[in-house]
Amino acid sequence: MTDGALRGPVHVVGSGLLGTSVGLACRRAGIDVLLSDRSSEHVRTASGLGAGRPYDAQDAPTVQLVVVAVPPDHLGAEVLAALSSGNAVVTDVGSIKGQPLAEVRAAGADLRRYVGSHPMAGSERSGPLAASALLFEGRPWAVSPHEDADPAAVALVTALVEVCGGVPVTLAPDQHDLAVARTSHLPHLMASLVAGRLANAPGEHLALSGQGVRDVTRVAAGDPALWEQIITANAGAVLALLDEVQERLTSLRHAVAGGERADLAALLGEGVTGTRAIPGKHGGPVRPTASVYVAVPDHPGELARLFADAGEIGVNIEDIHIDHDPGRPVGQVELLVDVDRAATLADALEERGWALHQ
Ligand SMILES: NC(=O)C1=CN([C@@H]2O[C@H](COP(=O)(O)OP(=O)(O)OC[C@H]3O[C@@H](n4cnc5c(N)ncnc54)[C@H](O)[C@@H]3O)[C@@H](O)[C@H]2O)C=CC1
Ligand SMILES: O=C(O)C(=O)Cc1ccc(O)cc1
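Above: the input record for the complex with NAI. Below: its predicted structure, written as tokens.
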């Protein structure tokens, strides 16, 4: 069928955020990419960005791999169409793996050439203009073979993940859906509940929004039409977690209402334990970080100068947050760095004239 090496052409079905990003990453590796979408406008935009060239039905016999990147409700139908239009291996990048597999199986298709997958990378934005060749760099990307999948098809999908810079994680479809219910779907719903409490809040309350509320609500800005499909497709696994949360919420309410500080502390402690359980970058253990706060003038080029200085000092920035100081032309930049390197960075930045604060 295939020796597992990705040579192309790759046919991307659905040239939105994910499809265009896959196209850009494959083009970067010199692989021929053919783009389709039910919106011809999206195909034009994606090819204009350099993600590939428009697909023509005559191309079908030459395609090595089809990547289906359409909304969850349409995954099964598009995977089926791809399996029946040629001999290519077919994958999809949908956020749930059980539903498309069940749909393809129910239609009696030959499943050997289909191996679902799911990059754990994306954005709260959608469409080709939000795409990036670097979207998948260093991110986990689930490869979810079912029991009838051909090992050569699994190898080819794994090769796609590697070409895109992702880190392949093999997980059976049912296990995948349980995992993302916990790591993606429940967090999204909780973020929506918290963000919903801001929707009609008074302006003077919202003026006190800091990094914390931005951190816990960012994903809630995602497209409701997409998330409604994701949650519905994984309802069973999500419901089990909602029941757990409901039970904890009842305990939390009792603790707050009754002034039960020890119970409250125990609940907060559970949260601390949970944050420590999240693996670090590239699936490694979490490295403790410390924050260095720098006042950065709101002028073009200042952030670039700060990053260049950190680079010259030889300290790797693990993450950054930027807060704008209302009323002052200065931003507060929080640099998160390895805990053992924070003092070195702070001292050297001060020597270079940067204003640091706690
Ligand atoms: N948005 C995110 O952060 C992530 C999304 N995913 C999954 O990737 C898939 C695509 O999502 P996005 O790229 O975010 O959405 P998007 O809305 O940016 O792109 C979807 C594209 O599919 C096209 N389309 C819809 N139905 C179609 C059909 N039947 N045939 C051909 N084209 C069709 C749309 O016109 C659009 O261009 C979804 O299944 C989603 O679950 C996976 C990881 C992250
Ligand atoms: O924006 C983020 O941080 C995300 O986590 C995006 C995301 C959205 C949907 C997925 O199925 C996977 C990843």
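Notes for the reader.
Residues 13-19, 37-39, 42, 69-72, 74-75, 78, 93-95, 118-119, 122-123, 126-127, 226, 230 surround NAI (ligand 1) (CB under 6 Å).
The chain has three domains: 10-172, 178-201+211-277, 289-357.
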